[in-house]
Amino acid sequence: MSGVTSQSCCLPNRSSPTALESATPPVIATTEFCSQGMIALDGGKFLMGSEGPETWATDGEGPVREVTLRPFWLDECAVTNAEFAKFIEATGHQTEAEKFGWSFVHFSQIPAAKRKPLGHYRVAGLEWWYRVDGADWRRPLGFGKDFARLKRETHPVVHVSWADANAYARWAGKRIPTEAEWEFACRGGLEQKRYPWGDELTPDGKHRCNIWQGTFPSEDRGDDGYTGTAPARSFKPNGLGFYNLTGNVWEWVSDWFNPTHPQTASRENPTGPTQGDRKVMRGGSYLCHESYCNRYRCSARTSNTADSSSGHLGFRCAADR
Q1: Domains of the chain
Q2: pTM, 2 dp
């Protein structure tokens, strides 16, 4: 359909790239910076990226390179529906999904009786995604109950574009983390491990993240306890105290996407390319599965246009120290 295209991995996008100058509203911070719910990190050197067999050449995970970061703060978990609601109430911000009048919802989250009428809104090439009118941060399914009636106040807010995430961060006196900051936190103090807790996906048979179990995309058994988003503080945090940096929802970061990392690029507090047509997303989501999208690893990355939103995409905030 017009204005909807498929993207690598399990990510549909709205259309053409959005110019962030026009997409980002001039929201002035109306709250003083508060470090509650954030973790102070000293920064320092770490090995970023991966070159293992699980990597995707088009994603640009490698080469492994030593990066140095200055101290910073990072939210211990993704911004929740309840937190985002306070921002909306205080500013009157209208999200891009609300402006467009629709967003993407995975078919597994839509009751079977409602899928047939939406059939003509399926995304070509990614038929498990539906363009659902009325889907936005308040009503993640696009119909029926809002997030409060669904008892998802503590779940990560979804259906937010990069510009929406940036607007929230600015209002809170914070910012969107850089890709390097995000990966530093995700690694949990470990060096070159697949996951925030080590190399085993389910150590001692215990689930440590919310991803797809079963046959993708037809059946999610929910062996980890969830068949959709989980509360933002689910599962055991990593060694630095962060929750759900892999699985649950993808998270926007501040960098423009580029599949290559030139040797001339700065390795100190890197911020990525100076321009681009897509923003980087990190961490994977509850829709990731080893047979299709194993991007629930510390080094995994993908991207999407800045105006895109979906039911598995959220964010967390950072701040300078």
Answers
A1: 72-258+274-320 (3.90.1580.10)
A2: 0.93
